[in-house]
Amino acid sequence: MEKNIAVIKGDGIGPEVVSETMKVLDAVGQKYNHQFHYTQILMGGCSIDAYGEPLTDEALAIAKSSDAVLLGSIGGNTSTSPWYKLSPNKRPEAGLLKIRKELGLFANLRPAYLYPELADACPLKEATSAKGFDMIIVRELTGGLYFGERSTKEVNGELVAHDNLIYSESEIRRIAIKAFEIARVRRKKITSVDKANVLDSSRLWRKVVNEVAKDYPDVEVEHMLVDNSAMQLVANPSQFDVVLTENMFGDILSDEASMITGSIGMLSSASLREDKFGLYEPSGGSAPDIAGKNVANPIATILSGAMMLRYSFDLNKEADAIEQAVRDVLKEGYRTVDIYKDGDKKVSTSEMGDLIASRV
Length: 360
Ligand code: NAD
What we know:
Mean pLDDT: 95
CATH class of the largest domain: Alpha Beta
Order of helices and strands: EHEHHEHEHEEEHEHEHEHEEHHEEH
CATH topology of the largest domain: Isopropylmalate Dehydrogenase
Bound molecules: nicotinamide-adenine-dinucleotide
EC number: 1.1.1.85
CATH superfamily of the largest domain: Isopropylmalate Dehydrogenase
Number of helices: 12
Low-confidence stretches: none
CATH architecture of the largest domain: 3-Layer(aba) Sandwich
GO molecular function: 3-isopropylmalate dehydrogenase activity; magnesium ion binding; NAD binding
Function: Catalyzes the oxidation of 3-carboxy-2-hydroxy-4-methylpentanoate (3-isopropylmalate) to 3-carboxy-4-methyl-2-oxopentanoate. The product decarboxylates to 4-methyl-2 oxopentanoate.
Distance between the termini: 18 Å
Protein name: 3-isopropylmalate dehydrogenase
Radius of gyration: 21 Å
Catalytic activity: (2R,3S)-3-isopropylmalate + NAD(+) = 4-methyl-2-oxopentanoate + CO2 + NADH
Largest sheet: 10 strands, mixed
Shape: globular
């Protein structure tokens, strides 16, 4: 198989972790006879330095014409970098918002998996973490409260603010279908999270999810209120497989889920549209505090590369091979500094990339 990948190394640790991911993808290509063609484009601070804007139309056109986008991370130190003296629509993050919007990426997938080898980093009680967990949060990314009309006005001598939370049936249906498709290739269980005891938008959400469920009789569906979900995530995370939810609830719950894994450098993320196209990136940021030192953990980005193979290219056994290689390397005791403890074998970013590529 031949695929064109637009590569955005970005800022901070981005270039370091993306290079290791390309190394691992090339090892997969060699073993399974695929060719991945990379076209590098600039986005974020590096694009501001080169072209005066965070994402040029030319770079966007290359991303649009590719089969998938691999992103490191963008941005710098928000207190000291000159990029943050620019107006908000000229800053590094504006590039990210533009590419997500222009590519129509409405579904955000964030797996949260507790590696047994890293269980010490999990802040939950030992009895809870011992059971492990392996879930994926499917968050609607382009509707709801963050995209509704908003205003702040003076009424009767005081300020009154409002934000609209709007969802249409079609917006709910397309994200629900995405979640059911993912559940089908996992443990076939969906927890749909809403606030249907209060919100009309949640009642519509629940109705549409139940309608979509009829086409997936092999997938078990439960509905859970968001406040209970927040509690269940820390009380009994092993009960979750696919968690389907709207934009704001997903924003909050996905951060909570990543926290209980204990290590931001391990967490991948994918943003998808209706077809197979997607943008793949680590959950963390550009980590300017450790950039250029060859110490960042590349695993989050490497696992995002595995998600690209699985969700955009349908290369499931190749994705499995990367995930297994990561588990093997952890089992053998290799750790970058963020997940290192006494007795482990400390390795650099590039050594970790080499190890994973060699285990593929
Ligand atoms: P951050 O995620 O970059 O860093 C938080 C902490 O986690 C830091 O101590 C960092 O060293 C550590 N860390 C993050 N990734 C790591 C890795 N792979 N290996 C080891 N340690 C890692 O968050 P921040 O400091 O709040 O933000 C820094 C910059 O990143 C800001 O400009 C922010 O806007 C940007 N950012 C970008 C994205 C993105 O590109 N999608 C996402 C979040 C933040």
